[in-house]
Amino acid sequence: MSDAVRHIPLEALHRELGAKFGPFAGYEMPIQYPAGLKAEHAATRERAGLFDVSHMGQVRIRAKDGSAAALARGLEAALPLDFDGWAPGLQKYSLLLNEAGGIEDDLMLVNLGDEVRMVVNAGNRDADFARLVAACPTLSIEWVDAALIALQGPAAESVLAALDPSAAAMTFMQARTLVLEGAACFTSRSGYTGEDGYEISLPLEAAERVTRRLLADPRVAPVGLGARDTLRLEAALPLHGNDISPTVTPVEAGLAFAIPKSRRTGGAKAGGFPGASTVLAQLADGPLRRLVALVSAEPIPVRAHAAILDAADVQVGEVTSGTVSPTLGRPVMLALVQAAALDGRPLRAAVRDKRPALEVVRPPFVPKRYKR
């Protein structure tokens, strides 16, 4: 893999909009716009934000023999999926695991019958591709060369439906091809903010035209990766490389919902995926640590890597993501904490010479508003 900085297709448009750029996962990405992070965050919560996420890897997967059955067999061996009952046009969240049960990446996949469309995280895209090629010798795996944008917020439906009315009929985790400004755009009703919205794959020749049309709606604001991070953290959505990683299992991360019952002990397709022995043992016995949501009433920002301490000042965990919530106005964080320490006893964070008290809460911090 080259160390050269990669560029997204719409970089010139973002510079025209006054975006401040910075490096992220090997790409030069828009971090924020002149309005600033808090205004972009609020715009997404109140109206609609448009994010360029073209750094994410878009992948098309088919069986080499063209059959849906071979496609299902190949992917079920590589991922904890079950194609039985997975209707075409529906999106699923899944995990690419290593042999120790650690999360190499988290993925979004859409079943299209004889094809699966997948989105992988930017920082892992090349490693994911190589891992899938090695694990799935019967499958054809190729990149989709397209831009990718996310339209998120309570006005997202009406904004997108003005371009293609069928967008309004979609519900959370459904996918279909919409016609936007004359271009066929593969679209899912999903996102990474906790708000209702869509992720839209744009053919390169139409990417700028469609994006400009969406931004022409006064309800839509351009939003950078800075606000995307605060939005996803308020929704308690994990970030790979922070909250989940190759050393964190799905059970530790609270992502066991991604392991279908059929792939668990006693299921019709039990095991058979990388790391299954570790994952199934933790499902049965419980993990020794857990990713939990924490808040503090004290106005002291608690950032990633801050130690979590018990009442005896012994470290029992570490913050993986932390910010001062723009919506709530108080510190919120995700942290990996020893399960034995999650018994109701006081917890504190170590922030230089301060020890703000923490409260374990049920995630998310801000309610999700998906259209079910």
Describe this structure in words.
It is a single chain. By secondary structure, this protein is α+β, with helices and mostly antiparallel strands. Among the domains are: 6-55 and 145-234, 2-Layer Sandwich (Gyrase A, domain 2); 288-363, Beta Barrel (Elongation Factor Tu (Ef-tu), domain 3), CATH 2.40.30.110. The chain has helices at 11-16, 37-46, 68-78, 125-135, 156-161, 204-215, 225-234, 276-285; strands at residues 6-7, 20-24, 27-32, 48-52, 57-63, 91-97, 103-111, 116-120, 139-143, 146-152, 175-180, 183-188, 197-203, 220-222, 289-295, 307-309, 315-324, 331-338, 347-350, 357-361. It has a 6-stranded mixed sheet. It has a 6-stranded antiparallel β-barrel with strand order 15-18-17-16-19-20. It has a 5-stranded antiparallel sheet with strand order 6-7-8-5-9. α2 packs across α7. The chain is globular and about 65 Å long. The mean pLDDT is 97.
